[in-house]
Amino acid sequence: MFRRKLSALDYHNPAGFNCRDETEFRNFIVWLEDQKIRHYKIEDRGNLRNIHSEDWPKSFEKYLKDVNCPFKIQERQETVDWLLGLAVRLEYGDNADKYKDSTPDGAKNADNTAKNAEPLINLDVNNPDFKAGVMALANLLQIQRHDDYLVMLKAIRILVQERLTQDAIAKASQSKEGLPVALEKHILGFDTGDAVINEAAQILRLLHIEELRELQTKINEAIVAVQAIIADPKTDHRLGKVGR
Predict the structure, then answer these.
(1) Cα Rg for the chain, rounded, in angstroms?
(2) Pick from 155, 163, 174: nearest CA to 215
(3) N or C: which terminus of the chain carries fewer CB neighbours within 10 A?
(4) One Pfam family for this entry, by name (predicted)?
């Protein structure tokens, strides 16, 4: 899940990096600070460089606080992802003239339609508010957690699209007037910490309730139709006999 950022930073083994390996993880943190982040002065990096010390976790915890990382030392994957994001931003800042006119591979041949087809590409996946909102929606929709929050968001989008039937999509595309809905009167039951995400979750819940109502209506219609067939078999020649 870190390959792209590691490659962007010219890490020596972007495909094989394993943050769960303690020695590799500690060496990686030292490399990241020495080569990319450089938050400490060289003479102040001694404790962080001493990867075999029993006090290294304390030094790393202090380092996270010093760089204002929002994650705890126990949240290793989130921490690595955040530090990589910080390193990429700093790398870009140091070489702004080099990268400002650069174009990603394949982007030169992509048309505007292809760009608009992927609305998630410009999201800041390192933003803690974004991660909290995605996790809240995943819990609401009972989607399994994934290490890559962007993958989770895509799964949410696919699930929502699949729950919208063709009839519902056709109705939604038609211009029609409807009754306004006061979202503030509908209790969500939880708070994601983001007003926009809260509103999106409320809308999803109302849509789900509407689908359930339509399903119940169709079930009732089917029951009535079945009852009409079996109510008086004497009048239904399709049964092939007269009487009960």
Answers:
(1) 28
(2) 163
(3) C
(4) RLL
Rounded to two decimals, the pTM is 0.42
Per the CB < 8 A criterion, the answer to whether 146 and 139 are in contact is no
Instruction: Parse the chain into domains and list their residue ranges.
Output: 1-101, 125-174, 183-243
CB distance 6 to 14 below 8 Å: yes
Q: Tell me the three state secondary structure of residue 145.
A: coil
Cβ contacts of residue 15 below 8 Å, gap of 6+? 3
pLDDT in tens, 42-83: 999 999 999 999 999 999 999 999 999 999 999 999 999 999
CA proximity to 162, closest of 211, 121, 197: 211
Residues 6+ apart with CB under 8 A from 26: 51, 56, 60
The helix, strand and coil proportions of the chain, stated in percent and rounded to the nearest 5, come to 60, 0, 40
Residue with tokens 């359930």: 212
